[in-house]
Design brief:
It is a single chain. The protein is α/β, with parallel strands linked by helices. The chain has one domain: Alpha-Beta Complex (Spore Coat Polysaccharide Biosynthesis Protein SpsA, Chain A), CATH 3.90.550.10. The chain has 8 helices and 8 strands. It has an 8-stranded mixed beta sheet. Helix 1 runs parallel beside helix 2. The longest helix is centred in the middle third of the chain and has 18 residues. The radius of gyration is 18 Å and the shape is globular.
C-alpha cells in the first residue's frame, strides 16, 4: 500500500471495445490495493465502436469518462487526461491490458526520490519486428535527444503533477513519450526506471503500424533540429503550481473520486 498517496491514472482509448471493460476492471482492482485514493480517467479519442458505451456501463465510482468528439491522436488524448487529473501523482497506461498495473505501486514509490518514474518492458511480448524497430528507435532518441531511458515508449509512467505540468506534450501522435522525456531532460528533472511486466495484447488491434514509422521519424528529426542547442536547466527545489486551466474543449462525465474501504485496500 502506498500510504497517503493519491493517484490519477489516464487510459487513452480508440476503438478498444474488445478490451476496455477488462482494462477498466484491472485498473480499478489493482489501484484499490495500492493507493488510499485514486481515479481512473478513460479518454475516448473519437471511437467509432462501442468503447464509450462499455465504459459508461461499468458504473464504477472511481472511473471518469472523457470523450473527444473526433479522433485527435494518442498524444492529444494523453494531454486531455493529464489536464483533467486531480491528484498529486499522475500515471498513464494503454487500454490493451499489456501491463500488470500492480507495477504502479513500486513506480509510485520511486517518486519520493525523483519527479518521474518510468517502466521498461522486461521480456517484452510483442512481435519481433516491433521489438526490432523499438530497439533502433530507442538508440536514436538517446543519441539525438538524450532521453536517457532504455524504453522511451513504455506505456507505464508516473509523474509528480507539478512536474508534468512543465512537460505537457504538444505532439498529437506517438512521439508524445519522446517529447515529454526530452523536455524533462532539458529542464533537469531526474528520471528513475525499473522493469515492469509485459503481456501479449488482450484483444483488438494495435494502433501502431509500420505506416507510423516514417511519420514518427519525421517528427523526431524536426524536433531534434528545433531543440539541438537546448541545454539542461537547473530548477529550484520548489516548483510553482500552474494556474487553473481554462475550460477544456471536450465533454466529460465527472465522478467524485472515492476512497476505497479499508478491506479493499489491502495488498495482495
Amino acid at each position: 500500500m502506498n500510504a497517503n498517496r493519491r493517484l490519477s491514472l489516464v487510459i487513452p482509448a480508440f476503438n478498444e471495445a474488445d478490451v476496455i471493460a477488462r482494462a477498466v476492471a484491472e485498473a480499478d482492482d489493482s489501484l484499490a490495493g495500492l493507493f488510499d485514493e485514486y481515479e481512473i480517467l478513460v479518454v475516448d479519442d473519437g471511437s467509432s465502436d462501442e468503447t464509450v458505451g462499455i465504459v459508461r456501463a461499468t458504473a464504477r465510482p472511481t472511473v471518469r469518462l472523457i470523450a473527444h468528439e473526433t479522433n485527435r491522436g494518442y498524444g492529444a488524448a494523453l494531454r486531455t487526461g493529464f489536464a483533467a487529473a486531480r491528484f498529486d501523482l499522475v500515471a498513464f497506461t494503454d487500454a490493451d491490458c499489456q501491463f500488470d498495473l500492480s507495477d504502479l505501486g513500486p513506480l509510485a514509490a520511486l517518486t519520493d526520490r525523483v519527479p518521474i518514474a518510468v517502466g521498461y518492458r522486461a521480456n517484452r511480448q510483442d512481435p519481433w519486428r516491433r521489438k526490432f524497430l523499438s530497439r533502433g528507435y530507442n538508440r536514436l532518441t538517446r543519441f539525438l535527444l538524450g532521453t536517457r531511458v532504455r524504453d522511451v515508449d513504455c506505456a507505464l509512467k508516473v509523474f509528480r503533477r507539478e512536474v508534468l505540468s512543465q512537460i505537457l506534450p504538444e505532439s498529437r501522435g506517438f512521439f508524445v513519450n519522446t517529447e515529454m522525456l526530452t523536455r524533462a531532460r532539458q529542464r533537469g528533472y531526474a528520471v528513475a526506471e525499473r522493469p515492469v511486466t509485459h503481456r501479449p495484447r488482450a484483444g483488438g488491434d494495435s494502433k501502431v503500424s509500420l505506416w507510423e514509422v516514417p511519420k514518427t521519424l519525421r517528427v523526431l528529426l524536426a524536433f531534434w533540429w528545433a531543440n539541438r542547442r537546448t541545454r539542461p536547466t537547473v530548477l529550484s527545489a520548489q516548483i510553482k503550481r500552474p494556474a487553473r486551466t481554462a475550460r477544456l474543449p471536450f465533454e466529460f462525465e465527472p465522478v467524485r473520486p472515492v476512497a476505497r474501504p479499508a478491506a479493499h485496500r489491502e495488498s495482495a
